[in-house]
Amino acid sequence: MSRYVLRRLLMALPVVVGILLVTFMIQAVIPTDAVSAMYEGQTTEEEAAEAIAAMRQRYGLDQPWYVQFTRYAGNVLHGDFGESIRLRRPVSEEIGYRFVNTLQLTGAALLIGILIGVPMGILSAAKKDTWLDVGAMTVGLLGISMPAFFFGLLLILIFAVWLQWIPVVPRGGAALLLPALTLGLIEAAPLSRIARSAMIEILRRDHIRAARSRGMGEMSVILRHALPGTLLAVMTVIGLQFGNLLGGAFIIEVIFGWRGIGELGVKAIQWRDFALTQAIILISAGAHISANLLVDVLYAWIDPRVDYNA
């Protein structure tokens, strides 16, 4: 198992290095930066030029790109993402609690998606070609097709404006409810379709027909023989879906004012704060890779047929 995990980590290393290089090169080719944006229209041209030159020298932006990249990559290896030019504080301090907030949001959304999507898919497969199956899959198709920002605004309109069950600007734990519900319901749509397809395929297998021929009830067949295989099929895509949730969280956090890395990432782009933007991209990519690795390890641990040396 340890060799399997080590091999997966080594495979992920070139991806992280590639992301680091690409994000840095995007910064290098953009003709402006956060320093220039800070002084736009605030001072005279001479004063702005002196201040910009001093700031660029302070942050090393006046050096060649390869010097900047070497220094930046070395700092990242030591956990130092630099200092935010706009916020005037270390990037790691600003991102720390926001990343925890984003994990809370995506974790709650994933839990909602699993609790709703998997049972809906299993029920749909058990009642294949009935009105229940058609209705569930229609709802799932709408969930896949609907943009996250539109669905979020729709939930605000229903629960905060029309029904007035939740304040428009909720506080405390209630602030997590609507954004998590928005992402969770959208996540339930693909999970339900995956669970349905896996369950239908398993119900056609010989051991299922053998269990039925022994007089076992349909519910027992589903719970004892078909459900474990269905959950394994769902588990294989959860890592990919976690990446989709992170992408959706960027939009949802802005709509609901949730103070996560998504909301901060949008602000960092507007500020042209490249140190902050690069750190958010790297951490998001690292979280995506870690989620996929965790799912692969759990799958290999649960399913004894998986070959660690493959």
UniProtKB/TrEMBL annotation:
A Pfam family it matches: BPD_transp_1_N
Tree of life domain: Bacteria
InterPro entries for this protein: BPD_transp_1_N (IPR045621), MetI-like (IPR000515), MetI-like_sf (IPR035906)
TM spans (from-to): 9-30, 105-126, 138-162, 174-195, 221-239, 274-302
Compartments where found: Cell membrane
Record's bilayer topology term: Multi-pass membrane protein
GO biological process, one term: transmembrane transport
Signal peptide coordinates: none
Keyword Membrane tagged: yes
UniProt KW keywords: Cell membrane, Membrane, Transmembrane, Transmembrane helix, Transport
Gene Ontology CC: plasma membrane
Residue intervals of the ABC transmembrane type-1 domain: 99-295
PANTHER family: DIPEPTIDE TRANSPORT SYSTEM PERMEASE PROTEIN DPPB-RELATED (PTHR43163)
Family membership noted in the UniProt record: Belongs to the binding-protein-dependent transport system permease family.
Name of the protein in its database record: ABC transporter permease
Lineage of source species: Bacteria, Pseudomonadati, Pseudomonadota, Alphaproteobacteria, Acetobacterales
